[in-house]
Design goal:
It is a single chain. The chain has about 290 residues and is α/β, with parallel strands linked by helices. It has a single domain, classed as Pyruvate Kinase, Chain: A, domain 1 (3-Layer(aba) Sandwich). It has 5 helices and 5 strands, in the order αβαβαβαββα. The protein has helices at about 5-60, 95-110, 120-130, 150-165, 215-290; strands spanning about 75-85, 115-120, 135-140, 170-180, 185-190. Helix 1 (about 5-60) runs antiparallel to helix 5 (about 215-290) and helix 4 crosses helix 5 (about 215-290). The longest helix is centred in the last third of the chain and has 76 residues, at about 215-290. It is elongated. The two termini are about 40 Å apart.
Length: about 290
């Protein structure tokens, strides 16, 4: 590596400082977006969990054959709804989801199962497209506007139709979910089929519903809401975790830039000192030569 002049080192330090200003600004933007997304997430989680609880309770009172979305089949064909971000610069946020999907698909295919993908986010589309995966649908720029139920309703219709027509035997959602402000985790949740879970300790306290017009009619309506809202929650969870991941990534980048500035400043000072010393030696040598 050629020795850098003090001018080159100063330019390098200035370049790092410019990058540091950008990462600081991105961190501030992500922090503001995170606070807003957390409010949306806090309103989403309780409704989602209560909706699942209601579906679970009703499912125990209804014959599974009463609705095609309740029928449980052997999982020979599996759909994965893969939720990533549209942008990068968020550390391992997108790669964690992608690695998990690749691993799961490989494992399922080794078991002789057919796997299809529904892709949310540009990063998922960029990775899986043209690599031999069976892609049912792909959606990019889905976070440009606020996450809304209009979009998830459209996707939910596709998924429910595939399950009803027995084009798939199980549907899973994989996305990142916020644990704390500083941590997130990749989760895989089963969307369909719904398998009612009976808690023997609470079975005597189980809520009894008076339903009109019929259990089946109410359940069908709730199932549609369930699909749409679980997709909605997955996107809200992912978006919130994305802001947290980017905030942390930009914070690390800012600190790393500060460390780089410190190292290059030391190198600059040494180079300047060497330059001064060399000039002094030249002056002394010149003075000696004049004697």
């Amino acid at each position: 590596m050629a020795k850098l002049s003090t001018r080159d080192i100063k330019r390098k330090i200035q370049g790092i400082k410019n990058t540091q200003r950008i990462t600081k600004a991105m961190k501030a933007v992500s922090a503001a977006k995170l606070r807003k997304a957390q409010i949306q997430l806090q309103a989403t989680r309780p409704y989602s969990e209560k909706l699942y609880e209601l579906i679970n309770d009703l499912g125990m009172h209804v014959d599974p054959e009463a609705h095609p979305l309740l029928r449980i089949r052997e999982e020979k064909k599996v759909d994965y709804v893969v939720v990533t971000a549209d942008r990068g610069l968020a550390g391992a946020f997108n790669s964690n989801v992608i690695k998990k999907v690749v691993k799961d698909v490989q494992h399922l295919e080794e078991e002789g199962k057919n796997v299809s993908l529904i892709l949310f986010g540009r990063k998922a589309v960029q990775f899986f497209k043209n690599k031999g995966y069976n892609i049912i649908a792909e959606y990019e720029d889905i976070y440009r506007d606020n996450v809304n139920l209009t979009f998830t309703s459209k996707v939910g219709s596709i998924l429910s139709e595939r399950y009803i027509k027995e084009e798939t035997d199980a549907i899973y959602i994989i996305n990142n979910e916020l644990i704390t402000t500083a941590t997130y985790e990749t989760k895989v949740r089963k969307l369909f089929p719904i398998e009612p879970k009976i808690d023997l300790e609470k079975i005597d306290k189980m809520v009894q519903y008076n339903i009109e017009p019929t259990k089946e009619a109410v359940l069908e309506n709730l199932l549609i809401q369930y699909i749409d809202f679980q997709l909605y929650r997955a996107m809200v969870e992912s978006l919130t975790a994305e802001h947290a991941a980017r905030m942390l990534a930009m914070d690390n980048a800012t600190r790393n830039a500060g460390e780089a500035i410190r190292r290059w400043t030391i190198i600059f000072n040494k180079a300047r000192q060497e330059s001064i010393t060399t000039e002094l030696i030249d002056i002394v040598n010149a003075a000696e030569a004049l004697k």
